[in-house]
Structures
1.
Amino acid sequence: MSRVANSGWGRPKTPEQVEERIVVGQDGTVWARSGKVEYGQDIRAGFARIVAREMELPVARVQVELGETDRVPWDMGTYGSMSTATDGASLRAAAAYAMALLKERASVRFSVPVPDLAVQDGRIAASDGRSVCYEQLVESGPLEGTVPSGAALEFASGAIDGGSFRVEAADIVTGRTRFPHDVRVPGMLRGHVQHPPVAGMHLDSFDSQTPYAQEGVVQVVHQGDFIGVLARRREQAVSAAQALDPHWSAAPSNPAEPLDVTLHDDPDISQELAAAAEHLTSTYHVPHIAHASILPSAAVADVRPDGADLYVATQRPFGLRDEAAAIVGLRPEQVHVHPQHMSGMYGGGGWDQAALDAVRLSHAGQCPVLVEWTRAEEFALSAHRPVLDAQIAAGLSEDGQIVAWQYHCRTNPHIYGTAAVPPQAVAMTSGRNAIPPYALAHAEILLHVEPGDIRTSAFRSLAAAPNVFVIESFMDELAAMSGQDPIAFRLRHTDDPRLKTVLELVRERSGWNRSPREAGHGMGVACAVYHGTYIAEVARVFVAADGTPHLEQVYAAVDAGRLVHPDGARNQIEGGVQQAASWTLLEETRVEAGRVVTTNWKTYPIATFPDAPEGIDVAFVASDKPSTGIGEPGSVPVAAAVANAVFAASGARVRQLPLRPAFIQKARAQA
Amino acid sequence: MRYRLDVNGEMREADVPASTTLLDVLREDFGLTGSHLGCGHGACGACYVLVDSEPAASCTMSVEEAEGRHIVTVEGLAPAGSLHPVQQAFVDGDAMQCGACTTGMVISTVSLLMKNPHPAEGEILDAMSPHLCRCGAYGRVVKAVQSVRGVAL
Ligand code: FES
Ligand code: FES
């Protein structure tokens, strides 16, 4: 595989200091600090609730600081629906420890043993009525110490109370929220860079004079293959960058360095397949899709000789800090990253190219610079979801049990960076959810990863959504071939009670067995276990005579452990379903000669209001198990559920996304 | 060129080239960054403002065209520190995730409800159809709009 990595991959987790996580302010505000960032998943409210619960405070007393590199503990980045599961757990431990320290101090102050103290609303009280608030307990000095491991801590139990809404909501609806595009720094210029259409091309020539003839242009910046302009206004910078009229040398031919990873080996697989009573083999294809954030990338950089401030929307503040420092020759701690509100990036926010543009231009121009990419640049230059091509085969016993399973998939890298990635990391990213959640007597699962024809990157759930589309469509094919009910077929292949529960719950909610079959209508099911979250979905579709599919309703049953923020979790699942419905029915990045040609909303349509299903029904399984992620799982089973519903509605088995009417008509004709 | 614009009930001046868009004037010259530049060609709804009470893409309207019209941006819907009933409905229903699309949707909702206080679901979808939401908040937005039906605006 080519050079793909994540700086900080596998960094060991050292014990944390409570003072890095939890600070009790003089006014009684409790500051909770995390290196994670907010990008629509509402982790700020989730973290506030976790800390409030442990410290027995009203949620409003907790202030969450996210991603400010000078103030929060180091973090590898906000990926993989892991914020609540990992950083939430760290914050919970730090908060529990902070509470223990506060109680110790109160115990000394009142000469009362800790077990005899009561805590409520930010005060610790002795039974004789004396009480003290947290801020008084830190007058003698801040809380300090190494957070013990979870086993040594006492946690608050029970549900986390609701009531608080998205912290940023009022700012969002009034337009006060600051995205990087909205940051204004005194003396700031606007910058725009001309990037080569294909990464790695060299600059042959460009026009360094014409831009200066344009109004507002301050400086043309040229360093090696990097060219850009500084101007007074945004539109002037865009137009001057065009006037640079660069000529690029032919794209370098990057020798492909493919990587093969065996996810599950079975030396007997060929025999077992051959010996099975019934067989099926299919091939599937999933195209590139675009993250298609509503706001194109933007960033402000203010690079000075002795330090730099970056106002950015990034999923990895520390990675960006280190990269920026290296470019301008500063030490990492001289670079201060200030995360701004982020237009949803869905995993694509680790590329940070606009931020690096701004860093270079600010360094060259010695002034603060705001860079805003155009919509076309956002589509053309950012990384896209990898392609997946899969060949899948299975053998069934006479009574319809899977006895052999073979899955060979080819895809592209889902992570990027500068150093080599260990094969386990590839298995966890490009191989995510390639192993089905079923009991299979024999299985061979092989992964082949090679660089794509365009740059590829992580996208919500990484390879899980493409893999689950293939696996769960194929499960449906096997059920149909052997005349079994698709839900019953899945249930007979798992012993996992949590997977069974979500399948049974979605069967119940969707009226799976009860709804009469109407011509053109159908229901499809799919399920997945994604990073510890169990999810089953049923889609109901109508397929028109001309092959146009209409998604009418989606039912999701989810077990994500203990819910920290139930309405936020519901919103995330709904959004994941809606976005994945758009991928499934409409989206495909088209590439010609190594260049993305779908560079606007006409050639790259996404779902709009009229395309949205009438309803997305989300049911959570009540649980006291550890919290798992909810940002990604909702999106994972959607494509298969919809494709299976299309099959139920029309008899058309479509093994390629998006589910275009033409593909449906063709498959229907073959059925 | 000097232009005088009526924005949020105030007359404001901008000295910009004639080709400048209303959106750039709002964002760059007046500091009203609640209208967002999502596409610049009228295809996403992120930049919508009210022009004489009608929702319009400010990214494709020139400053010249905007002169003499009554412009309201999302910042001008309610006095500072308070929320317009439509804004309140979006907050109450958590009808957003990242919020990049939200201000434009609020604008279109206000205009719809001014003209038609009891829109049917189809009319809501029609009115909102210029707006893209990548986070997939469509269902919640429709519910938020329905929740303000009939409220005097
Ligand atoms: S920015 Fe105006 S419609 Fe997209
Ligand atoms: S809330 Fe993110 S684009 Fe709509």
2.
Amino acid sequence: MATVTLENLKKSFGRTEVIHGVNIDIADGEFIVIVGPSGCGKSTLLRMVAGLETVTSGKVFIGGHLVNEREPMDRDIAMVFQNYALYPHMSVFDNMAYGLKIAGRSKAEIAERVAAAAHVLQIEPFLDRKPRELSGGQRQRVAMGRAIVRKPAVFLFDEPLSNLDAKLRVQMRLEIKQLQRELGVTSLYVTHDQVEAMTLADRMIVMNEGRADQIGAPLEVYANPQTVFVAGFIGSPPTNFLPALSVSRGSTEELLGIRPEHLRIVGPDKCELRARVVNAEALGAETLVHTRIHSGEYVTVRQEGSRPVPEEGEEVGLGWAKENEMLFFTNGARRY
Amino acid sequence: MVEKRGAALWLTHLGLIVGLFFIFFPIWLAFVASTISQPEIVRPPMPLLPGDRFLENYSKALVSGINAPVARMLFNSAVMALGIAFGKIAISLLSAFAIVYFRFPGRQLFFWLIFLTLMLPVEVRIVPTYEVAAQFGMLNSYSGLIFPLIASATATFLFRQFFLTVPDELAEAARVDGARPMRFFWDILLPMSRTNIAALFVILFIYGWNQYLWPLLITTDPSMNTIVMGIKQMFPSGDDTADWPVIMATSLLAMLPPILVVIGMQRLFIRGLVESEK
Ligand SMILES: Nc1ncnc2c1ncn2[C@@H]1O[C@H](COP(=O)(O)OP(=O)(O)OP(=O)(O)O)[C@@H](O)[C@H]1O
Ligand SMILES: [Mg+2]
């Protein structure tokens, strides 16, 4: 168990800088999720913490020690890879035992620790099998098992669930969270799935093109996004953005963001904004109404499924509470 | 696959049997010739059924041979073929490992240098190689038979291609698990390559076994002769009469080890294929 500190961490591949300086202090036992779109540098950041990628500049501390120059094995970390990276010719037992074997643990201790990990993950029946004789979900558990038998100070996960089907993903998500709570191991978890990020994270790092746009607790990030990117990325359906002037706020330089769930369809008379309904998706519990305002922007409204569904082409009014308005400068930063 | 029924089935089988007969017949004749006496061979027509001198001819070949006992030559060939096969596999595994997994200056250059040697088979470089072997005092020795043939661009290339298909994450997982490079090589890369190794072993063993020109050059002492060149040495020079039954027995004995290797490794090979990993 350990704290992790990243200090102005940067990474370049050749001339191109892909991580532009990330700072974070991670508390002991904290579950940090790194979330962002494809190619924003999540894996690169994680791999620098793992020691699989050299650090171009900045510092990585694990448990208070500067580990920039340390090999992965000397950093006291364990990593779960997206494709699991199980050793194909070894049994599940040997896969989990390999790290301990190299560390020179006694046979008895290895057997005991593997058995304990296998018990926690419910993979005892498979210990003698080869990875190819397992289903995707079982392989995923083995990969987790390989990480936890080593009792590392930090877990690193790189999209560990993205090869699983939707249902299994939800189940494993819960299990990972529970496991991490029980073991209390500091964890860094990379995903591009915001639901995973919201549900797993104690705090999340929202990455945008190599920058940590915002770091904070999931609900805090949702309620109070610091940039246009974060507001658009976290929350589904994404935040609507309008030119601030179209509702007579701010200046031409500014954008107004409102989340679909904060919008209401009201009569066309006493409203902030008029819009024409483009189509409505009734999903049962909720209805997504896609509308278009006069200046051409599309605006999505999310309302209870029990509310009446407006007709296509109908002219409606959109209303919202003042406190839900988010104003951004066009360069992306938040104004209020 | 096209399914064949009725007449087509019989026809294809007939074709196969005829083909087999054509290929197998000379070998059968050699076998027959190795079981009869010299006078019977030279007097036409040659018999088509085995005679009664099987034991006699074969023991004569094995124990005394003509220049050197065949047993001795078989042993020499085995040492040479095994030495070449294992040596080539060991060296090419290591060089492929270095080329794929390490970044060092001149890596590409070395790869291309190795690749270039593909164009230099033994026959092309035989004179300088002989010169070098002679200077090292390797004439009439196993090291002289083996070392000059050991470097293998083909095998290096094959292992390189295989290593490139091994996911990077595997090497990274091993690194996180604490495996140093050589440990990763032994514990993970080598076991994963065993199908390739088995296949290469068969090919290289036969390559080594069938070497003719090089042993002919490097060995003058009959007790260092290998079997393939030994057969040629048995042919009479001048007016001596050839002892054909013994020569035929020797030929058949020379064919045996490669066949055994193919059959033996085939099992491992197929098992490897069935167990192959994704
Ligand atoms: N070895 C490399 N050499 C050069 N560029 C690289 C290398 N690895 C990654 N990159 C670049 O760095 C950027 C970040 O890559 P990274 O793999 O961290 O993205 P990611 O956020 O993990 O994306 P994904 O969600 O698709 O996995 C990408 O633009 C990628 O092209
Ligand atoms: Mg990635």
